[in-house]
Amino acid sequence: MAFSGALSVTDLNDYLGPSQVCIKPVEAPEVNEKASGEVCVHLTKTEIAIDQGNYYESNGQRARTQLETAEISLNDCLACSGCVTSAETVLIGMQSIQEVQRELENPNQRTFVASISPQSLASLVSRYSYAMLTNTVSIPALFKHIAHALRRMGFHFIQDTSFARHLALREHQREFFERRKARTENIPNAAQLPMLASACPGWICYAEKAHSELLPYIAKTKSPQQISGVLAKRYFDSADRPNGVYHVAVMPCYDKKLEASREQFELDGVKEVDCVLTTGELHDLLLNAGYDFTQLEMADDAIPRQIPNASQHDSSSVQWPQLLQEPGTSSGGYLFAILHAVLDEYMLHSPSAKPSLELRVIRSVDYTDFVLRSEDGENLFKGAQCYGFRNLQNLVRKIQRTTGARNSRSMGRGRMVRNAGKEDAAPYDYVEVMACPGGCVNGGGQMRPPSSSSKEVTQGDTDQQMQGWQGTDKSWVRRVESAYWVDVNRRAAPTAQADTSEQTKAIMRVLHDALDGELHTWLADVDKIAKEVEDQMSSTKLELFRTSYKGVAAQTNGLAVQW
Asked: Where are the alpha helices (DSSP H) in 8-91?
């Protein structure tokens, strides 16, 4: 049998465990020495046994010693260049339920703030609705109920990350136009297009360790998690609790723990996010505190929407708009925000124009091109939605072709994209990149469905690329996706269950609503609030909302072995 190219382990699965070179040096116990200084060397055969989940070392005699669990810290993981994304399987002890509980038991005159992602809320809604055999549980109701439970545990303020995400989207748009101007005017040494989304730490980790040549194209705008940390540390200080803010973020992804631990996400030595819990860990934390999700009795306090004044630093008045339903995708709507901004700019100069949108599915709906054209066929914008490492590897090769970027590491030669025509060769302006198939609603830290849940595949469903993390399936991911959309009319993402032309029309309807409709009015109202906050921190906004990334020195990578 002839092979046209090398086979790499990185081609085989979206979910990559620790590399063979993910090694932390182990300190050997001190050796015994005789009085004469002679070293005692024991050549007894050693065996490792497993008993009820514990590991024991035996030297062939009756006695055996229980082995301690090896631990790899976040700093150890970040310092290693041997893996792609190993946070799912690495033993992380620095950010855990136990850590949060210890901090709550020792408040030390601090303000405790929790920020919960909308994707986490959607996952919890799906799990609780299934458990209670009802579809009446909503995200707003569950959020209020969880907030009440967390306050009883000792948290002072509970917010979701949607307002921080809105700030991130606005900064994302500004950065995009800066880069486009740099390309148009050929400004030397300036960041240019294509611009790649920066909100997914799994993708960032992969780029830093495997494709550092792409780092100049990754957006410098921080993720909603980190901007929520900026807001918490800047606005929630209290004179009654003078020892600062302890900020916990609840996220759908284990890699968010790695993101929070980065040195560049500290200001004057203070972390923006002190601890990250996954959706499943929040569930366990609540259960440990006696939370009963089968009794969804709502707290009396309504979800507040008043906006703080940064000059006051009065925590009693600090609350953000909550549960903002951004249009676009359930991963945050980054591509839609850029597409909307480009279309808005074009329509201001050509109000009578009728531009068109074309969708092109590359491999599955997880990798879809979006091309916005003027009436005469000129490309106004080309972007893509790219989810999952299989699709991401094809994206990397395309970016390399269109930009000339070269990977000096020559890691894993995966399959090339076949039949790359003229349209495929056109460069991207922007790509919404997420490491998980299906995006953030399918993160590795999300709730798993009950073992008895149905695993039926919708008849006619051809999207075979949609997979779930350990124990989930396509139907469950769709359930979470459905729960995410409190307002389904704002969804503007392709699906495998509808005709491409119909989906294109649906996305254009959302775009036109954002230009001149109820959605436009809603966006304008939220933008007004966001601008007030930005103006309050205008002198330091770039420092607070943007970051930078750097490549990690290459080592031998067991995952890239050629066969």
From this structure: 74-79
pLDDT confidence tier of residue 414, bands split at 50, 70 and 90: very low
d(CA 452, CA 462): 24
Q: Is the bond preceding 450 in cis, omega lying within 30 degrees of 0?
A: no
- Give Dmax over CA atoms of the chain in angstroms: 96
Are 248 and 277 members of one domain? yes
**What does the chain come to in residues?**
563
d(CA 316, CA 235): 10
pLDDT for 556 equals 53
d(CA 117, CA 251): 6
What does the pLDDT read at residue 259?
92
SS3 274: coil
Q: Which two tokens stand for residue 448?
A: 């798993």
252 and 387 part of one domain: no
Q: For residues 106 and 118, state if they share a domain.
A: yes
In a domain, 465, yes or no: no
Phi, psi for 177 (deg, rounded to 5): -70, -30
Give the pLDDT band (50/70/90) at residue 224.
very high
Dihedral pair phi/psi, residue 238, rounded to 5°: -140, 140
307 and 364 inside one domain? no
Query: What domain range is 290 assigned to?
Result: 74-164+223-317
84 vs 86: CA distance, rounded Å: 6
Whether residue 218 sits in one domain with residue 253: no
Q: Strand (E) positions, 64-172?
A: 64-66, 111-116, 157-160
For residues 6 and 414, give the distance between their C-alpha atoms in angstroms, rounded to a whole number. Answer: 7
Residue 88 and residue 203 in one domain: no
Specify if 514 maps to a domain. Answer: yes
Quote helix, strand, coil % in the chain, to nearest 5. Answer: 40, 15, 45
Q: What span, in angstroms and rounded, lies between the C-alpha atoms of 484 and 213?
A: 35
Lowest-pLDDT choice from 103-107, 270-274, 299-303:
299-303
Judge contact between 484 and 118, C-beta under 8 A. yes
Q: Residue 104's pLDDT is what?
A: 96
Burial class (CB in 10 A: 0-12, 13-18, 19+), 263: exposed
For 266, the 3-state DSSP assignment is strand
CA distances from 204 to 86, 209, 300, 432 (A): 13, 9, 41, 12
Per-residue exposure over 492-520, b if at least 16 CB sit within 10 Å of its own CB, e if not: bbbebeeeeeebbebbbebbebbeeeebe
- Render pLDDT for 237-255 as a digit per residue (tens, 0 to 9): 887 898 999 999 999 998 8
Put residue 460 in one of left, alpha, beta given phi > 0 → left and psi -120 to 50 → alpha: left
Q: Are residues 305 and 435 in the same domain?
A: no
C-alpha pair distances (Å), 19 with each of 9, 38, 81, 340: 11, 39, 9, 40
Asked if the structure places residue 114 within a domain, the reply is yes
Identify whether 66 is part of a domain: no
